[in-house]
Amino acid sequence: MGKVVLVTGVARRLGGRFVRRIQRDPEVDRVIAVDAVPPEHHLGGADFIRADIRQPAIARVLAEHSVDTVVHMDVTGTPLGSGSRATVKETNVIGTMQLLGACQKSPTVKRLVVKSSTNVYGSAPRDPAVFTETTPPKSLPSGGFAKDTVEVEGYVRGFARRRPDVAVCVLRFANILGPGADSPLASYFSLPVLPTVFGYDPRLQFVHEDDVIEVLRIASHEPQRGTLNSGTFNVAGDGVLLLSQCARRLGRPTAPLLLPAVTWVGSAMRTLGMTDFSPEQIRLLTHGRVVETKQMRETLGYEPKCTTAQTFADFARSRGPGLLPPEALAGAVDRIAALPVLGGGHPPTPSAN
Fold first, then answer.
1. Which residues fall within 8 angstroms of residue 226, CB to CB, at 6 or more apart?
2. Phi/psi of residue 233, each to 5°?
3. What is the pLDDT of residue 276?
């Protein structure tokens, strides 16, 4: 008998991709895909069960199918369809509590993988330059998805203490980007003009969707020789990008605003439904966040295929040119540089850039 893997949050594109990928592993016998709404995408040969993880019925699903591995991907910052922020919070927190309660009662569950986020570290002016998995945040997130992830991880730690026989892996992903990214930050970068906080140029890290799927797959199996996939791991691509660099590579102009004005603009955007420009995202776009990924490489044994810059480049290609295409802007700069110097003389030598 092979593994029986239950995956939550399969109505979202990322969850659907993981379900299709994990089915190809020879050691996996069955995949049980669970969500409160039917997915619009195909799930391959997985068995889809329409179930709300906020309800106790999820325990029956685990028991009936003798699930031994649970991959909890239904922890997210964006509503699905016409859902509200309250529904998202209930699914994140209450849903996780119900799922963990069901896992605790199940004698067959032997491995739990939880999709978390580096949002648990928050974003504050006195933050360290780089967060490790054991670095306490200077200021705990006070609301939104970041607070949800803090609560979720607290419940997961409690579960791990009560069921020490279950291998628990918590994956703290940096901002997930890619051609199909669906997140508040992806929506922000899709705006024609990017509102920024005047006087700040934060450092950002990204992880590609393809790397997210592969890390989840590694965490859902028994560890390879010389590796350990139980514990908490930061997951991000190599390197960082400044927000100003992101804007230039997207070809989108920025609108620097004082912090109170950015907060007001964010509220207006949420009201109009343009994007979820939440207070936690404003803090990220003010102070930034960078995490250490040494444990991901040395303990988990995974080397990301895409760097932060490559991830963002793939995302930028999927969004099309902005109002200031980088190539056109570079051409204009070169033409200006080639103009004769006022009062005669030779034009300056063009730079390598």
1. 301
2. -135, 130
3. 63
What is the distance between the alpha carbons of residues 254 and 270, in angstroms, rounded to a whole number?
Answer: 19
| Nearest residue to 170 via CA among 100, 219, 226 | 219
> Rounded to an integer, what distance in angstroms lies between the CA atom of residue 282 and that of residue 124?
11
User: What percent of the chain is modeled with pLDDT above 70?
Assistant: 90
* Gap between the Cα atoms of 244 and 201, Å rounded: 6
At residue 67, does pLDDT exceed 70?
yes
Burial, 204: exposed, middle or buried (Cβ in 10 Å; 0-12, 13-18, 19+)?
buried
28's tokens? 């996996």
pLDDT of residue 350: 54
Q: Determine if residue 228 is left, alpha or beta; phi over 0 gives left, psi from -120 to 50 gives alpha, anything else beta.
A: beta
With H, G, I as helix, E, B as strand and everything else as coil, classify residue 46: coil
- Predicted TM-score (pTM) of this structure: 0.89
User: In which band, very low, low, confident or very high, does the pLDDT at 138 lie, cut at 50, 70 and 90?
Assistant: confident
Residue type, 109: V
69 DSSP β-pair partners: 5, 111
DSSP annotation string for 122-154: ---TT--SSB-TTPPPSS---SHHHHHHHHHHH
Span 107-120, mean pLDDT?
A: 96
pLDDT in tens, 274-305: 566 778 889 999 999 999 999 999 999 999 99
Residue 41: CB atoms within 10 A of its CB come to 14
Q: What is the DSSP string of 251-305?
A: T--EEEE-HHHHHHHHHHHHHHTS----HHHHHHHHH---B--HHHHHTS----S
